[in-house]
Structures are given as C-alpha cells and as structure tokens.
Design goal:
The complex is a heterodimer. In chain A, helix 5 runs antiparallel to helix 8. Chain A has a single domain, classed as MetI-like fold (Orthogonal Bundle), CATH 1.10.3720. Chain A is globular and about 65 Å long. The model of chain A has no long low-confidence stretch (mean pLDDT 90). By secondary structure, chain A is mostly helical. Chain A contains eleven helices and no strands. Helix content of chain A is 75%, strand content 0%. By secondary structure, chain B is an alpha/beta fold. In chain B, strands 1, 2, 3, 4, 5 and 11 form a six-stranded mixed sheet that branches. In chain B, helix 2 links the parallel strand 1 and strand 2. In chain B, helix 3 packs parallel to helix 4. Chain B starts with a helix and ends in a 6-residue tail after the last helix. Classes of the chains: A mainly alpha, B alpha/beta. The interface between A and B is medium-sized, with 21 and 22 residues.
C-alpha cells in the first residue's frame, strides 16, 4: 500500500471539494435566483466537463496551462512555474473536472426551496446573500452534502485528467488511482487487489459515517 | 470502443450475410505502430485480398486483453517480453518460425531525444541532457513502455539518471510523452523515432538519435494468438511484414529493419 499516494489523494480531494463548494454555492444561487436569460447558457457550460473523455479534458488543460497559450504564459509569469506536473495543477484540473458534480445537486436543492418562503424573505427585506446563506443553504443542506460527497469521491477516483496533467511524480502528482492503474498494468494484480480493497473499505466506512450522522431519527423523510 | 465495434460488425452481418465469410484479421498493435501500420495493412489487403484491422494500445494493455479473451488474431508488440508472456501462458505462439516459443522480431525501435523548435534550450543532443536548464524531461513509463525502459537505460549509461530523476515526468505511453513536450510543459522528451517522424512532430520539433550502444535494442516481437480461426491469413501477414519492401517502409517510418 502506497500511503504517500493515499495521503496525497485525500488532500487533493479535500481541497478540491472545499474550492468547489465555495464556487458552486454562489453559482447555483445565481442560476436559480437570477433572471438573466443567458444564465441557461452558463448552466450548460458548467455541465460541459461531463461530456469530454477525461484524458481529452486533461490534454486540453495540459495545452491551455502550458507556455504555448497566452493564458498559460500568464499563469507561468504569475507563479514562476507551469501548473502542469504539480499538485496545484491537479487541483485546477480536479475543480474543473468535478464542477458539474457540485453544481447539479445544489441547483436541484435550491430550486426545490419553496417559492413562497423565498418571496416572504424578500418581502421582509432580506438581501440576496442573506436569502442564500440563511434560508436556501440550510434548507438545501442535503443537496450540498450530496454535492460534497460526490465531488470528494469523484476526485478520489479521478484518473484521466491526473494521468495527462500529472506526470506521475511521487508525492506531488502520483494519486492512488494512478498507483492502482500502474499495479494493474504491471500485472501486479495482488497489489492492485489490496489497494482497491483498502480504497473501497475506506470509502464505504466514510460514506456510511456521513450518512448515519446525517440521518434524522425515525427515518430519512421524518 | 470494442463493444461498439462488435455492435457495428453484428449489424453489418445482419444486413449482408455474405460479409460473414470475410471477417477481418484483427491485429493488436503496439502504440508506436500507430503512424506506421495503417498504410502497410492497406497494401496487404491489395496484394492478398485479406482485410486486416488494427487496434493500437500500449503493449501491456493489449497483453492483458488477450489474456482475457480479446478477439485478436495477431499481436504486434513493442518489445519481446509481452508476447513471450503470452507464449509462456499457452495463449500465443510463433509457429512456423525457427523457434515457435520465441516471438518473431519484426522490427527494432529507435530512441530519440525530441524538443520543440522554439525551445530556448540548446537543440537536442547529449549536452542538452547534461544542461542544468533542462527542468523537465518526459519519458514513457519505464515499468512497462519499452521506450521508457530504453530511456532509463540510456540515462543510466550516461550516468545522468540520478541527476535527472527528480526532473523526470512519466507519461503513460510514447505518444503521451510526445504530448508533454509538444504542449510546452516539458523541455524535452525521450520518444520513439516513429513519433518524431510523424508530420506533426517533424514540423514542430527537432530530434537527436540516442546512440545505440547506450540502451539494449528495442526488439519488437510478433506472435499469433493461439485461438485464432485465421491462422493461414495471420502467417501471410507476418511474412508480409518481414518482406523486403515492407521492411524498407519500416526504415522510412523510424523503425530499424531486422534484415
């Protein structure tokens, strides 16, 4: 078992999930509450990472973040090094890759908040940020939790983007899915089985803990 | 991709019962043959009437697929170890050649150092490998990609492996290694001559042939998958690959002929 890769993966998934929640909550609020007609186009754009095969998405990011584009040169000038083949590069890739998994459930959760409650809050003079933070976020907490869990797990299992953008550097970009893939490709099935079993056991335990902690007494719908 | 192809093939069979008689010869081909093999298979069809379709993948992935029953007739690997593994498992053979338990070497690979033309570093050479300005060198995964293994062997012969190790970025296969460099994210890469000679990379970069003595030869081996129903056609293809005109074509595409 490659503990360094496990730690790196958990770190990547945690950071990615936090960034995604910070981005997706305001974005989803804008998509649900906004009246601007082009918001539908924005919503479609936020779903796009689902369409591309992950390795292809990774390849586009590799090119975009590299020194052959103005955007990439800007980043290199800012950071002093290219984002590809670094941990921060993986964070950027993972945030883009998992964006739909954060946005979709939160939009659905916000949209399910009763209109009468939203109208009442507005009539009582609540600002948009107050409306979102004090009313919609608490009422849609299940959707937000679902989004967080999905983003975290999606990042743990992320492969194609990391493969293209990472360069398999131990301690920096070698995540557990890369280790697992390497073990399978090197015909080391025994090690692959062990790694996969530990990964599955950890995930099931963590998920069950979250769901138990979040289950109201007397059942889910009580 | 495979299930799709099978679905299309089944659909084709339903529409044209005559197509059943001529199932194509299915070739599992190493990724470095991607730019080389398609025109050769077309010539093969013209001269023999046998249609052959190739699937390009890393040799290791193809080996795992054949071990699990993938419907290939011929396996053209990028090295000898993977086809040998299939022979040892009784899943493939080199029947018809002098030694049926050794894969048939059909070509040899050449390792080159490749860099982009607009790189600020000196052009590819052994000096570039020694340059402290070389911050990132891309290689293919040495655990399984034959060119990656050759790259590590060459760097070790040059006594540069320990120095360069922290600066290596590892790609899954030889074409991804080239993408790391072509996209500007790595300064240079150790790739196959077949990749360096593709129009895209030939136009955008320069290469330096790594001296042959620095790494063990990258012998590319072929085997016939034992469960094939098209053994005669498979033999014809192997003979065709070893024929003088095809070997000459290999040489032009960056592979070294075996005779």
């Amino acid at each position: 078992m490659d503990w360094q890769a496990l730690t790196l993966t958990l770190k990547l998934a945690s950071i990615t999930t936090l960034i995604l929640l910070a981005v997706a909550v305001p974005l989803a609020a804008l998509l649900v509450l906004g009246r601007w007609r082009w918001l539908s186009a924005l919503e479609a754009l936020a779903a796009l990472p689902l369409v591309l095969p992950p390795t292809v998405l990774g390849f586009f990011l590799l090119v975009l973040l590299g020194p052959r584009t103005a955007f990439g040169r800007g980043i290199i000038a800012l950071l002093g090094h290219p984002l590809a083949f670094s941990f921060s590069g993986l964070v950027v890739g993972s945030v883009i890759y998992s964006l739909p998994f954060a946005v979709q459930p939160i939009v659905a959760g916000f949209a399910a908040v009763e209109t009468s409650l939203v109208d009442a809050a507005r009539l009582l003079g609540a600002s948009s940020s107050r409306l979102v933070l004090s009313l919609m976020v608490p009422l849609a907490r299940r959707s937000i939790l679902a989004a967080a869990v999905l983003c975290f797990l999606h990042t743990v299992g992320e492969f194609g983007v990391v493969l293209m953008l990472g360069g398999d550097i131990p301690g920096a970009t070698r995540t557990l899915s890369i280790v697992l893939y390497n073990q399978v490709e090197n015909f080391d099935y025994a090690a692959a089985n062990r790694t996969a079993a530990i990964l599955l056991a950890l995930s099931v335990t963590a998920l069950a803990a979250i769901y138990i902690g979040n289950r109201p007494h007397g059942g889910r719908r009580a | 991709m495979m299930p799709n192809r099978i679905a299309v093939a089944l659909l084709g069979l339903m529409c044209f019962p005559t197509a059943m008689a001529q199932a194509p010869l299915r070739i599992a081909a190493a990724a470095d043959l991607g730019p080389v093999l398609p025109p050769i298979l077309e010539q093969f069809r013209q001269s023999t009437g046998i249609r052959a379709e190739a699937t390009f993948e890393a040799s290791a992935a193809l080996t795992a697929q054949i071990q699990n029953g993938a419907p290939f007739d011929v396996f053209l690997s990028a090295d000898l170890s993977y086809p040998k593994r299939l022979i040892d498992a009784g899943l493939a053979d080199a029947a018809g050649s002098a030694d049926s338990s050794t894969p048939i070497t059909y070509a040899k690979g050449t390792l080159v150092l490749w860099a982009h033309k607009d790189s600020k570093l000196p052009p590819p050479s052994l000096d570039l490998l020694r340059s402290p300005d070389l911050k990132r060198l891309a290689i293919a995964n040495p655990d399984r990609a034959p060119y990656g293994r050759a790259a590590v062997a060459a760097l070790t012969s040059l006594k540069l492996y320990d120095t360069l190790k922290p600066r290596l970025v590892t790609a899954e296969n030889i074409s991804q290694t080239a993408q790391f460099v072509d996209s500007g994210n790595a300064d240079a890469g150790l790739i196959s001559l077949t990749s360096a000679l593709t129009p895209r990379l030939a136009a955008s970069g320069n290469y330096f042939v790594i001296p042959r003595g620095l790494y063990p030869p990258i012998e590319q081996g072929a085997v016939i998958v034992s469960r094939t129903t098209q053994r005669a056609a498979a033999h014809k293809l192997l003979d065709f690959l070893l024929s003088t005109p095809v070997q000459a074509q290999f040489a032009k595409s960056g592979l070294t002929p075996v005779h």
